[in-house]
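Continuing the series of single-chain predictions for the mutant panel. This is the parent chain; the variants come on the following pages.
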Amino acid sequence: MLTQREAADACGASRTTIRRRREAGELPGVVLDDERGWLIPVEDLLAGFRLSASAPPDQAGPEEAPAGAGQTDVPGDAAELRAELERLRHEHELALTQEQHVRALAEAEVRHLKEPGGTRGAHR
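Parent structure:
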């Protein structure tokens, strides 16, 4: 699950675009997390951007710049997007694992301190 910012970065889109898609119901698996905000499943992003990638390009009028003019570093390859999303998914899993480890250490410390005679720094 990615935050709106992570999803926007991974897809080469703005956070506003991701927010609009979420509000329009185009990302059905989103959940609201009290700490991280809206979380978006990678699968929703892949499905959503696969659909929009097959849409025909807009026709530029005689006085309009061609589509994509002035844009830089826009990922145009679905495989590149998938690789970036997979990398973000892996980073997220590592962060969750680290958080669980820290929480377990903190809980062990609390249990130790609650034991009779349990003081910080005391050796048994």
